[in-house]
Amino acid sequence: MDEVARGKNRNKSKIRARVEHVFAVVKRLWGFTKVRYRGLAKNANRAFVALALTNVYLSRRRLMAQVRP
């Protein structure tokens, strides 16, 4: 593999790792492994809320550092 391809691959893997970590938190921490049939709108709403909470959960140290002096 040449150096350009390795750089592209490394960049993709960094992005993939960050995205997959978010989904792992949603699935493991909040039990979003199986979705009951509630309708598309309700399932989508539940998924969006879970992903938003995951973003807050994963950045909690940075957010609390801004609150504490």
UniProtKB/TrEMBL annotation:
GO terms for molecular function: DNA binding; transposase activity. Residues 4-55 form the Transposase IS4-like domain. Pfam families: DDE_Tnp_1. Transmembrane segments: none annotated. It comes from the Bacteria. InterPro entries: Transposase_11. This is Transposase, IS5 family. It comes from Paraburkholderia diazotrophica.
